[in-house]
Amino acid sequence: MRKPKITVIGGGTGIPVILNSLRHKDLDITAIVTVADDGGSSGEIRHATQLTPPGDLRNVLVAMSDMPRFYERIFQYRFNKEDGSLAGHPLGNLIIAGISEMQGSTYNAMQILTKFFHVTGKIYPSSEKALTLHAVFKDGQEVIGESHISQHKGMIDHVFVTNDYDDSKPKASRKVVKAIMESDMIVLGPGSLFTSILPNLVIEEIGQAVCDTKAEVAYVCNIMTQYGETEHFTDADHVRVLNRHLGQKFIDTVLVNVEKVPQEYMNSNKFDEYLVQVDHDFAGLQKEVSRVVSSDFLCLENGGAFHNGESVVAELMNLIGMKEL
């Protein structure tokens, strides 16, 4: 029997947690990663090289690789703040940028690095060009650039992306649509709703493919709300935003954490994007999707509230088992 095909879409620090657990299963895995990051090291590199930002791709590469821990520490090493023009840059970002420049694209670089680091599966940037994220707020104000969105007070109405260096319409990377259409399951998130998940889906080809695919589409809802993005959001609000952006109810299953986050993890100074735990609205969810999986998906570590990759993947495997391949 062939391996079930599962495609994970997102970015940031959320999807690496899931991918790291998925790679130990007998699956054909593809990761589709956002290229709209314009802050920190990734932002500096994209502006200097006019290539897609490497940071989210770097974290996914590490999560899906069987590289020894020492190699991982080297790849993830971040230069000290006293190191001049190198300050704050992870070594892996510079390696990805260098190979991207040498090969003419980040897409080509990732195909080399997946072999170099013995990655289980395939990693594709969502687009082969750097994208700029635009957020239009309820008050009509438009904020340009992912790193600026959380600084604007108010509620986001919708987001869209444009190409950085030309006026052409953003397009999906080669093989991305094919991977989505051939998948048995699509997993969205976990990750920032407006800045990690939607920047992929609002690329028209990707959004259309996710709507058209016969795969089970599962959304891993965030555990915590995020400052400047999802303040006061319920789990149903997250799903409504996704469905509204694509113009239809395309999500089949939502995975929701029901374990209580301790009070000391609220408004954490270490993770200042976190506010409070996402409220539950199961009646609202049932209007948006056909299946809700609620369980203890919580992992508390390093002062933050994260998803437990093993618990999430166990439920995803149950869903795959329910689907006739």
UniProtKB/TrEMBL annotation:
Required for morphogenesis under gluconeogenic growth conditions. Signal peptide: none annotated. GO terms for biological process: regulation of cell shape. This is Putative gluconeogenesis factor. One of its GO terms (molecular function) is LPPG:FO 2-phospho-L-lactate transferase activity. It is found in: Cytoplasm. Coiled coil: none annotated. One of its GO terms (cellular component) is cytoplasm. It comes from the Bacteria. Keywords: Cytoplasm. InterPro entries: CofD, CofD-like_dom_sf, Gluconeogen_factor.
